[in-house]
Amino acid sequence: MAPRTIDDVLTELDQVILRVRNEKSRLGYFATLYRNVTLKVKQRIAAGFFEDGARVEKLDVTFAGRYLTALENYRTHQNTSRCWIAAFETANRWSPIILQQLLIGMNAHINFDLGIAAQTVAPGSELASLETDFNRINNILASMVVKVRSDVEQVSPWIKLLDSYTSQTEDRLIEFSLSKARTSAWLVANMINSTPIDKLGRELEILDEGVTKLGGLIASPKGFLLNLGLRVIRLRESNDVPHVIDVLSET
After folding, report:
1. What angle do CA 173, 94, 83 make, to 5 degrees?
2. What separation, in Å, do the N-terminal and C-terminal C-alpha atoms of the chain show?
3. Which one in 94, 134, 233, 248 has a CA-CA gap of 20 to 30 Å to 58?
4. What Rg value do the Cα atoms of the chain yield, rounded?
5. pLDDT class for 163, splitting at 50, 70, 90?
6. pTM, whole model, 2 decimals?
7. Residues 64-93: pLDDT tens digits?
8. Residues ≥6 apart with Cβ < 8 Å to 8
């Protein structure tokens, strides 16, 4: 049954995390980050942080549902978005560092799913009224990313090597900034809102293809020195998947 409330989402995420933790699967890294974000959104709704808390909850549930459905479809070998397939398959590879694992999940969820979810809960003329709360959700996402970097440092002691590169070089690793991704998501919502239904499928295919390519650059960035640095970082990272999930779970 699809989740209907944020509490339902948290319950499903807990089940996912427990399963992948027992499987010692790196799929648990993004799932854990996402649970932390969902909990923060729930707390902010309760605190009256949003203009329309009920609609934000609906957006959160719709947004999360896309990730949960994509994950389940991937696990059961059913069709799902190419950008999510790329993200999930990264978890089966040894070389990407933890930060890359998280970023490629964020890439699929923000650059592809978020705009679709926003337009779903606020179609047509309702979309414009969602923008303020949409931006507030994005601010929560941004704040959580800052925290997760410090968490990652506990299990990836040489992650600070990235700081030895210029900001331009680090941009080549992530290939997108979170602020640009959030802006892109709002543009996606408006694109969907203005696209005739008979043309929407093709537009989403094009979007999926672009987000998939971006995910590929996150997982396998260009540049010999950058890749060498990533390999050194990876060699020092913890390979204890349950432990990494536990560290990322700390709030």
Report:
1. 55
2. 28
3. 248
4. 18
5. low
6. 0.91
7. 999 999 999 999 999 999 999 999 999 999
8. 61
